Amino acid sequence: MQAAQYPVALRHTVARVCCALAFAATCMGTFAQQGARTERMPSVTVSAKANPNPVEKSYRKMLRGMDIFQQQYAMSPNTELRFKLLPRKKGTDMNTITLAVIGDTVDFVVPIDVNHTFALPRNALALLEGAQVVPNRRALSMTWRTDIRTPGLPPDTRRLGDLRLECKVGMEAGLISNSRSLIGGLVGALFDTPAYCDKPAPQYLFFADRPLFSVTLLAGERRQVLSIDKLYANASDDASLHDTLPYCDCEVLVDRTYVLPLGDRTWPDDTLVLFEYMDVE
Hints:
The protein is α+β, with helices and mostly antiparallel strands and 281 residues long. It has 6 helices and 13 strands.
């Protein structure tokens, strides 16, 4: 469906939201292409003195998320699990991030792909030592999500079962990094189990690849366009947006944010999630 087919009132509402959130749209730009990095991480980037406030994650919890992916693989067959790094602050350089798993006696670099995703290797010693997954970035400068994609889908299309499993893995892996209740009345970091994703309308924030105009669910002949309160982190009517946005890991990605009826099983896993972007390529 083309943007011109939407009611004028809706288009005006979206335009107002995007104006209010215009600052977020400039954060990403077009990332320069780079190859996966396999070099050893310089010690300065992982030392407590050089980086006293890293945005690290628990290696053990991320492996538990990987276990969820394996246990519930039928929800998203023919896929692989990757983790994705995303900016949270303006000016965060996503192209120079290095990532390492660091324990008491073990440490190794995790290669990051050109699309800022990575696969996390299993290491028994790192698990035993309660290692951390450490990027060379300060806390609140970036955030994390899972990335599970069925190959061969049309452009600007995702599969609902993939996104359901992304939520479950992300919750188990502890990837959400909100420091208090989210903007627009969304729930903060109070949910930390995959069961949260089975609620009819969980407020798990997904991030599209580009600023959104609309998101549509399509299952056979059934089609539903998500209402605007399911987009932009429900920020369209939030008068306190400026004050609350720094507490959300969507801070510079609001115009790419959407939530889905993950627990509504009237939408099967094979439901297609169709994106229409603000910028038409």
